[in-house]
Amino acid sequence: MSESRHVLVTGANRGIGLEFTRQLLARGDRVVAACRQPGKATDLNHLAGEHPGRLHVLPLDATAPKTHAELARELPLVLGEDGRLDLLINNAGVLHSGEAFGRVDAANLDHSFRTNAAGPFLLTQTLAPLLADGARVMNLSSRLGSIALTTRFGTPTYAISKAALNMATVLLAQALADRGIVVIAVSPGWVRTEMGGEGAEVAPGDAAAGLLRQIDSVSSEDSGRFIDWQGEAVDW
Ligand code: NDP
């Protein structure tokens, strides 16, 4: 996948999503950067000025299926009537911190599920007709969503929602296999963003570059797998 591609990145206005967008543009891809408030996405709008015609900033709220459908209606205007997406990066995510057993909030659980699991699943389902045969879908999961690696009670609403995203990944991989579409869940490492915090180990640029290397090198046998930004398998 080295030629210019059409890529959609969700949660593209900051953090790892913004880094994906920067790096994809730098290598010549055409990017649809989806975010909740395009008018306030200063960095993206600046990038759009630097890459005229190759970056489109469109609205999307992962929790609102109505906006998924609106995005699907807009995409042919950007891709051309016969154009298709070569890569969908389901990056938007949320983490509610400071949760302790006995005080886990129902609204946080619901919000995390709708953002981190239902959002990517439903968006991929809605955009499936617009994915090219042989396209790739990369779902930003987390080691915190791994049942096998969980050793303590931490970030429960996030962990539950990312475990659900992992199941969504496997189901999407199966649903799209006959079109040669590869769907994987990935762990970006612990990344220095608003979510990861200043003490995190990995720079957002390194995480994005590592994940793009992985999604470039996967084949149909890898569909439905969970790997990290350096290509190591992650236990479910
Ligand atoms: P940030 O908190 O820095 O950025 C999150 C992004 O998601 C923002 O663009 C935010 O937009 C967007 N977003 C949140 N909710 C919604 C929504 N309902 N609809 C659309 N966009 C939304 O996080 P990171 O960049 O660190 O994380 C990116 C992904 O990587 C996430 O899925 C996260 O779970 C995952 N990840 C991150 C790790 C880390 O250490 N940082 C570790 C493991 C996984 P807005 O500005 O509008 O809020």
Automatic annotation (TrEMBL):
| Gene Ontology MF: a single term | oxidoreductase activity, acting on the CH-OH group of donors, NAD or NADP as acceptor
CDD domains, alphabetically? carb_red_sniffer_like_SDR_c
Q: Which domain of life is it from?
A: Bacteria
* Pfam families (alphabetical): adh_short (PF00106)
Give the protein family.
Belongs to the short-chain dehydrogenases/reductases (SDR) family.
Name assigned to this protein = SDR family oxidoreductase
Protein's organism: Luteimonas salinisoli
